[in-house]
Amino acid sequence: MIAVGNREQIFLKQSLEKSKDLAHRQKMNHALKQSDDAFEKGKGQFSDLELARDWANAIKRDAIMQLDTYLCEFERKFTSRGGKVIWAQTADQAVEAVKAICSRHRAKTVVKSKSMVSEEIRLNQALKDGGVEVVETDLGEYIQQLADEAPYHIVAPSLHKSKEEVAQLFVDKLGTEPELRPDQLTQVARKVLRKKFREAEVGITGVNFLLADIGGMVLTENEGNGRLTTGFPKVHIALTGIEKILPSVHQLSLFLPLLATHASGQHITVYNAILTGPRKADEADGPEEMYIILLDNGRTNILADPTARESLYCIRCGACLNVCPVYKNIGGHTYDTTYSGPIGSVITPHLNGLKDNKHLSYASSLCGSCTEVCPVRIPLHNLLLYNRQQSVAAGYNSGMEKVMFLTWKKMMLNRKLMNAGSGDVKNWVFKVFVSKIWGKDRELPMFPKKNFSQQWKARRQQK
Amino acid sequence: MDTIRDKILTDIRLALKDGVEHTTAKPTDSSLLFKNREGGLVEGFVREFLAIDGNVIRCDDFQQLAEKLTELIKCNNWKNVVAKSAILKKCGEQTQLESISTVVDDENLGRVEVGITDCECLVARTGTIVMSTAQQAGRTFPIYIPKHIVIAHEKQLVYDLGEAIAVMEQRYHPDYPSGWYLVSGPSRTGDIEKTLVLGVHGPVEVYVFILK
Fold first, then answer.
1. What's the ipTM?
2. pTM of the prediction?
3. Residue B190: its chain A contacts at CB < 8 A?
4. pLDDT by residue (tens digit) across B181-199?
């Protein structure tokens, strides 16, 4: 599909298409209903979830407010055990660092476990261009890679595909028998990928938490691909944003259950690995080299804004996507951003520029479901409103919008103007000027024949 | 001099010049946040581990462990069983254990059907097995094997994750193993239409033998 227009126009056009696509809606409703049900069950492990969220918020606040101190502590401890830290200010620097390590080790194959930062820096394409085979090993990411699509959801990458679509994809790309069931498809992927884990020279992962006090990182997953990615290859590279820091390993006793419950409705995810460095001399196996790449890529811009700063508390659980009526209706790809849903709409304008991404903050009914569910209490819908204010302050709103609000303000402040014109006149004005913005799929509200003031007077006279 | 590092740290410090709020409350005891279940540690672990599709077998002594383990292997007709377990080694010295191999080279790793390992501790509240690379099973063996059997003593049970992390800290600080692994049940996914499938990349079955 060739899209014409600027990012906002494309976004509006695709939103319209997706929200009318009933098959899409059915698949999204099915998947997100399952997430809802699982979450309801999972949160039963907490005796006081509200307090847990308060504490998580306080811990992340502390972490972010002393980010420099904790990052330096992390670096000192991690490097003392032989790990290497690479700082990257931009996506390009991070990509170059990974490429340099791969070429130093003459890597032909790289296995990857899920990493949104790798999506952010467009790593796969860069490695492929350099002649390296990149294999996604998380089942959902593997499906997306076969389909040559970006992830649809930050936690469940292939959420939008029915099992029939996945089965057909496997027929087309892997030559499997048709109409395989999900368990059979999983076995196919297992078989293909087990070879890759053992062949690959380099394993690349994301990071769920960086731990300052012990100088380590946490990798959270359910499938075991993260463990294999950090087990067999002789080099492990982990990519992370600088905000993923936690002051202490002890705080995992709160953050692991909190993340699991909000991401997938579990009490704890099946595999949580705390990795503190490369293989030690007396250990059986493991990578000879371990690198952690700390990426800024616009995060310090967010940090510099005391209001927006709270969005850096995010632990990427995806709960705000699951409850968002906009995400549910327009789907993950329409955003055309690395991070979709409410958190994506909040941070993308700061990471990639306000002008080209301001429309994302307007794509919200401000219903507040995201704020209500966020495990670290990021005031997401307030931050969307804040982005809108910034966009208006920067003069990015259209002339038409300015005129409309000015007119609105004038009329609202003047009783005579508000009462001017009959219902029919108002309906005509609305039909001419507003119906296009309102869209033809929604019924235009009608003004009654008599306005409120007339109705009110009539009612009082009846008494 | 690493200039990129310095630039980022300078940017962070500049960014934090304004509006920094320091929190006074620094919560510590997270076990207060979770529902306290009735019953002992063993019962708690069994309940939670079964709920996440694991299996638990309790034994009174080495004799019973040897018997129950042999029976499990026979029942399932498992052929290629490899143990990397200090507890089982001790058990084998005192009892008649079916021939279980203790070595496997890289080439034959793919043929192993069942792997037996120790653990650092077990967490009752979440049904979690804690392992580490300080143990002989290492990084790849316990995750590559299709079926995983863990042997633990009852005294290795703790209630919550916080205690397990404290155990690891006391045992290893400051010379930590390069990998600490929390494992809660068999490998699983819901990536295709949220359908639960067990055994994606890791073991499809996990058994924990708890010795009195």
1. 0.96
2. 0.94
3. 34, 156, 222, 264
4. 999 999 999 999 999 999 9
